[in-house]
C-alpha cells in the first residue's frame, strides 16, 4: 500500500506544481496561449467545468464531480487494499488516485479544472487541452485494467468446517 500512497503523492505534487508554474507563474490565465514546440505542443488555457472534453460544462456539476472523484478514489484504494495486487497494479492505483485528487483540488480552488497542455500533429488542429492529472488518471485506469483481474485474491480463502461441503469421493 505504501507504493499506492507514494505514487499518488508524487502525481498530485507534479500536477499541482505544473499547474502553478504554467497558469500562475507564466501567466497563462491572462495570455491564454504559449507556443512551446510549435506546431506540436502549446500551452492553451482551458477551464474545464464539466467532465472529459468539457462535456456538461453548462451545468453546475462542481460538487457532484468532486464527490464522484473522491468516491472512485476510495473504491480503488479499498480494492487494492483488499486484493493486494502487483506493484504495477498498486502504482496504477496511485496514478489514478493522485490525478483524481489533483483535479479535486482545482475544483475546490477555482471551481473548474485547469487544463493547459495542447498537442497537435500532422496538420490536425486539436481543440482540447489536458493536464498532468488527466494523463495520470488515464494511465492509472489502463494500468488497473491490464495489471488486475486475474481472479486470484491475495487474501486466504475461508476454510469450511469439517463435515460440510462436498462429500468425499469414496471408491469401493
User: How far do the termini sit from each other?
Assistant: 52 Å
Strand order, main sheet: write it out.
Answer: 1-2-3
Major sheet, described briefly?
3 strands, antiparallel
Helix content: 40-55%
Task: Kindly state the number of beta strands.
Answer: 3
Beta-strand fraction estimate: 5-15%
Q: Which structural class best describes the helix and strand composition?
A: mainly alpha
The ordered H/E elements are HHEEHHEH
Query: How confident overall, as mean pLDDT?
Result: 85
Low-confidence stretches: none
Work out the count of structural domains.
Answer: 1
Shape: globular
Radius of gyration: 22 Å
Helical stretch tally: 5
What report would you give on this structure?
This protein has 172 residues and is mainly α. It has one domain. Helix 3 packs antiparallel against helix 4 and helix 4 runs antiparallel to helix 5. It is globular and about 45 Å long. 29% of the residues are buried.
Concise structural overview:
The protein has about 170 residues and is mainly alpha-helical.
What is the secondary structure topology, with strand pairs?
Elements: H1 2-25, H2 28-31, E1 33-37, E2 41-48, H3 62-83, H4 87-110, E3 113-119, H5 132-147
Antiparallel strand pairs: 1-2, 2-3
Keywords:
172 residues; mainly alpha; 3-stranded antiparallel β-sheet; 12% strand
Amino acid at each position: 500500500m505504501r507504493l499506492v500512497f507514494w505514487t499518488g503523492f508524487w502525481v498530485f505534487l507534479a500536477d499541482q506544481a505544473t499547474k502553478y508554474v504554467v497558469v500562475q507563474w507564466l501567466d497563462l490565465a491572462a495570455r491564454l496561449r504559449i507556443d512551446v514546440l510549435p506546431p506540436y505542443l502549446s500551452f492553451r488555457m482551458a477551464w474545464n467545468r464539466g467532465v472529459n472534453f468539457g462535456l456538461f460544462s453548462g451545468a453546475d456539476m462542481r460538487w457532484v464531480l468532486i464527490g464522484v472523484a473522491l468516491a472512485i478514489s476510495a473504491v480503488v484504494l479499498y480494492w487494492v487494499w483488499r486484493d493486494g495486487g502487483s506493484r504495477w497494479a498498486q502504482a496504477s492505483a496511485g496514478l489514478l488516485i493522485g490525478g483524481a485528487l489533483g483535479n479535486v483540488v482545482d475544483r475546490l480552488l477555482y471551481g473548474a479544472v485547469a487544463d493547459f497542455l495542447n498537442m497537435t500533429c500532422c496538420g490536425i488542429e486539436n481543440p482540447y487541452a489536458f493536464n498532468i492529472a488527466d494523463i495520470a488518471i488515464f494511465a492509472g485506469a489502463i494500468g488497473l485494467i491490464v495489471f488486475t483481474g486475474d481472479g486470484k485474491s491475495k487474501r486466504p480463502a475461508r476454510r469450511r468446517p469439517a463435515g460440510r461441503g462436498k462429500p468425499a469421493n469414496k471408491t469401493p
